[in-house]
Amino acid sequence: YKRQVVIHPVAHASFVMETPAGTFYVDPVGGADAYDGMPMPDFILITHHHGDHYDPDTLSGLWHDNLAMITNPEVFEKLPEEMKAKTRSLSNGDQGEARGLPIQAIPAYNTTQDRLNYHPQGRDNGYVLTFGDFRVYVSGDTEDTPEMRALEGINLAFLCMNLPFTMDVEAAASAVQEFRPAVVYPYHYRGRDGGTQDPQKFAELVGDASEVKMGNWYG
C-alpha cells in the first residue's frame, strides 16, 4: 500500500489522498475549483464543522452520486438530506466502515485550559483508516491527547499544529515520539496572530522517531 498512496496537499487542513481503495478528500474547503485536475472523490472525510474543515459550497461542487462520506454527528446534522443519505455519522470512538473500509473515529479535542472552547471533548473527530495492514491517521484539530498517544501501528499520520487552536510543535513532536507513525506530515500549521508553527522545528524535535515529510500546504 505504501507505494500506492499518493498525497496531494491542497491548503491548510485540506488534502486529497489516492489509495488502492479509492480517492479520499479530507476536509475539502476552498471551492470545488481548488480540486481541478484531481481524481474525483470516492470518499470524503470531515472532522468537524469549523469553516477551515467544513464548507457546504465546496461539498456541493464536488458532490456526485457514487460518494461515501464520513462526518462527526454535528456536521451530519447540518447536511442536506441528499448528502445525509450517502453519509455515515461516527461519534468519538466509533468503529464504522465505508464501502467495506474500516474507519475509526478518534477523539479530537483541546486539553489546555484556555483552549477548551475551541474543540471541546466529545464533539470532533480524527480518523484512522485501515487498508489491509496499512493504517492512516488524520488528526483533525486536537492537542496531544491520550487517545492520540495510544495509537498503534500507524503507517502514515497527518498531524495538526497551530496556536491558539490546537497545539505547538513541542506537543506534536512529543506525541509522535510516543505513537511513532512510520511517516508523518505536519499540516494545519498556520494560525492567526503569529500562531504559526514551524514544520522544520517539528521535524528536528521528532528526530528519528518517525520520517517527517513536508507538503506544500500554503502555496
General description of the model:
This protein has helices at 56-62, 73-78, 81-84, 146-149, 169-179, 199-206; strands at residues 6-11, 14-19, 22-26, 43-45, 68-71, 87-89, 95-98, 101-108, 124-131, 134-138, 156-160, 183-187, 211-212. The two termini are 28 Å apart. The strands form two sheets. The protein has a seven-stranded mixed sheet, covered by helices on one side. It is built from six helices and 13 strands. 41% of the residues are buried. α5 packs parallel to α6. The longest helix is centred in the C-terminal third of the chain and has 11 residues, at 169-179. It is an alpha/beta fold and 219 residues long. Helix content is 18%, strand content 29%.
Defining key terms:
single chain, 219 residues, alpha/beta, seven-stranded mixed beta sheet, six-stranded mixed beta sheet, 6 helices
Mean pLDDT over the residues: 96
Output the helix-strand order.
EEEEHEHHEEEEEHEHEHE
First CA to last CA: what distance? 28 Å
Low-confidence stretches: none
Strand content: 25-35%
Category from helices, strands and their pairing: alpha/beta
Strand order of the largest sheet: 7-8-9-10-11-12-13
Largest sheet: 7 strands, mixed
The best one-word shape is globular
Quantity of strands, as a count: 13
What is the rounded Rg?
16 Å
Helicity, as a percent range: 10-25%
How many distinct helices?
6
